[in-house]
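During the no-cost extension, the postdoctoral fellow (Dr. R.K.) reprocessed legacy sequence entries with the updated structure-token encoder. One reprocessed record is reproduced below for audit purposes.
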Amino acid sequence: MNILREKYTIKYSTMGVLAFLLFLYSYSVRGLIYHSDKIAFGTLLLGLVFFLPSFRKTSISVCDVIWILAMFLITFRNQDLAHKNYYAYLETIICVVLVLILSRCWGWHNSFIKITLFFGFIHMIMGFVFYFVPDFYLSKVVPLMGLEGYWLNRIRLMVRSGFMVGFTTHHSTLGIYFSILTMMLLSMRFIKKDKKGKMKTDIAIAIAIFAFFLNGKRGPLVFAIVSATVAYFLCIYKGSISGFVRFVIFICAMCVLLIVLSRSVPAVSNFFARFIGSRNFNELSNGRLTDLWFPAIRIFLQSPIIGIGWRGFIYSFHSYSSMVQDNNVHNIYLQLLCETGVLGTTFFIFIFGFTFFKTICILRNRLDSTIQDDQERIMIVFSIMVQTFFLLEGLVGNTLYGLTFFIYCFSVAFIYSIISGRAKHNTLGG
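Re-encoded structure tokens follow.
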């Protein structure tokens, strides 16, 4: 009876994971995939329902309390609600509810790993295909996305400048997909023991990083590599010289490969040119310093204690910026300051820090002792990478919103299920 119940819960958990990841991996073209926001968000709500069969009733923990308080702070004076942008508010709330539900479930991580890899490779393949047929891409694929004005001109400029955009509306979205794929592959590389499996993973990592360079996004690649390095030394490296040497050799081999590729494939040099060609910090930050960060500071000074309300920046910054299109701050810490004030920012940084350091302190030893299943171990390492990436990319990106925040919520929910003792340390299926 228990075996039948496990198969039943795993089946529905897989459907829940699929519903969410389909939404995430069609994030910038969801109008084409779902045709309406009602269907898109209805799919997410259905995804939450699919997790309920594996939901286990337990006592409320500290993790639950802090995320319930986060939901309150997000709702308090929420500017999306004030401006009747209900779907943006619903998206954030669904992320929080996802954490609360998945932290009481188990067995979904196997499906999460497989489906994340599947969608990651699909986007990488489409990226390569469209990259080598730019005229077809611009004439046949881009019109399907329904872009107009600034965004249509923007994607044309990126393609003609030699950046890989793939089946997304902006190369930064594809960069996030590549970072998730790269971190998952590196997590598998760190955990797997068989030589044949490691060799296949190494080839996949090399191809993913090559695609990253064609994509041209600097932050996602740099922060993904830094996050992988942090995870390696926190979870895998045990002080052995041979382990450190192997890691250095692996990094050097990747660097040599990229140097060779940059000479044989000129488009790879776009990545380095974006660093070298920047004459000052404002150019290096793509104009964020003057158009987004300074306005955020000015808005913060208007209400430094409690801020102007969640997501208020996007509705307020035009008075202080020359930027025409709506945008977030591209720095979650400045955005939290101007929207939630010192009080709210302190609380959210506490959530991020609490989760990160709990992950390190509790799981560093348990990775080898009480957790034996490779899929669980891969998910633990991936979670540490994602949390590190979330905090670093948050310095220049919008990781508190959209697809990065969803992935962050999946990763921390898995950790909470272990921290709170809700996890059963056996495999419930694949």
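Residues 276-284, 423-430 have pLDDT under 50 and may be disordered. The chain is about 70% helix and 0% strand. The remaining legacy entries will be reprocessed before the final report is submitted.
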